[in-house]
Structure formats: structure tokens, C-alpha cells
Fold this protein.
Amino acid sequence: MSTSAAREFSIQTRGLNLWYGEFQALKQIDVAIKPGGITALIGPSGCGKTSLLRCFNRINERYGNVTTTGEITVLGKNIYDPDVSLSELRKTVGMVFQRPNPLPISIYDNVLFGLRVHRGRGFGNRGERDELVESALSDVSLWKDVKDKLRKKATTLTLEQQQKLCIARLLPLKPRVILMDEPSSALDAEGTQGIETLIESLSEKYTIVIVTHNMGQAGRISEECIYMLLGEVIEHGSTRDIFLKPRRKETEMYIEGRYG
């Protein structure tokens, strides 16, 4: 890929197909996701949204019996090239899951966990580690709430705080892209609002791709939407156009609640 194309898109797929065993979950996916901002993957259950999201950092391969063809470039590099390190890819492309999954260790150690995995336990001095923790927790609007209880177990936090912590855990690794698989689905309305506000603020620094079943959420926070159906991309455009003047009948039916 040319340097100019690498600058133009954070993620691009060409002819991407994915099978779980004999079942084809993704069919000839061609998408291009711009740097920065928020892109929402929308569509009915089972349409392939999460499968596509998990392709972007090759986490699908953890589940076994997965076959993939086609090409995915992240920041201009084909992530299926033989010289690609999965460890480095997953530092660059971080992921947040549906339910918060903090480790049953302290808040402080949760934030540093990823760095310790990649660099070993002895990285940096205490002051440097403290700065990393404060910076990450400040970036997710959690520092003021937890600065006096950093040694408490992360599992004592509220669900909203736990999800913010899981996002904070990615930041010391300096990702360029953050994938989010229904990050507020386990939260109440107040928690959802908090996470949406956080996602919007993070989109100023990171490319964010989010899977959501919540059409209101997609409309509120995303700049672009990719509508999927039965493993195919039906339509990709600005969120405003997808919601107000979709080009495809299938998209219109879904947006109006007549499908899925």
C-alpha cells in the first residue's frame, strides 16, 4: 500500500472472508475506515459485526477452527503478512469487550498489566509507573474517583468504573486503534451515558470502531456507520446519511425498525 493510502485509512479490508468451520460468517468484505473519529458497526444479531471487529486484531484466531481469506491493512500494513507480530498488533489495536473484565488485582496493577506483559515486571521506576497510572486514569475520567484507593481490588468498582478501567488498561500501550464490542451493554442508562461521553473524548486521539445494537447510541456518537446483514456489508457512509437517507432498501428497513 502507498504511503498516501496508509495515511488516508486506519483500517482497510479487501475481499475479506471468514469461516467458522463450514459456516461462512463474513463474505467479501470491502471497507475503509478513516483515522480518528468513531465508526459504528450496526445490524441485526448474527450479521457478522463482532466477527468483523475481531478480524482487525486477529483475535478471532483464538477461537480455533477459523479460516480467513482476503486482506486487512492496519495503518498501511497487511496484518496477515508473515512478519506481523500478534503481540505488537494487539498493542496497536486494543480491544474492549461487552462486559467489563478487570483482573482481580489492584486498580493500580490493572492499569499497568499490559505493559508488564510486554516489558516485564521491572519496567520504569516508581515515579514513571505512577505517572502512567495517573495519566491513563485521567484520560478515562476515573482519576478523581479512585486516586485514594489505587491499592483496592478493581472488582470493587461499579460496572461503569470497571469498564473505564478496562479502557485505561489499554492506554499505556499507546494504541492507535481501539475496538469496542458493545462496551455499554452491561450498564444502566447513567453508566451508558458515561461511557459514551468517554468514547467521544477518546475519539480525538484514537480511531474507534464500535459494535452496537443500540441505534440511539450509534446515532449519538458515531461519525460513520457500516450496516451489515447476513455476513455482508450492505451500506457504509456517514451516520447522518445512513439514518436519514440510506441508499439501500435493506438499510432503510433496519433503521426504521422493520428488520432485525
Confidence is low (pLDDT under 50) at residues 1-6.
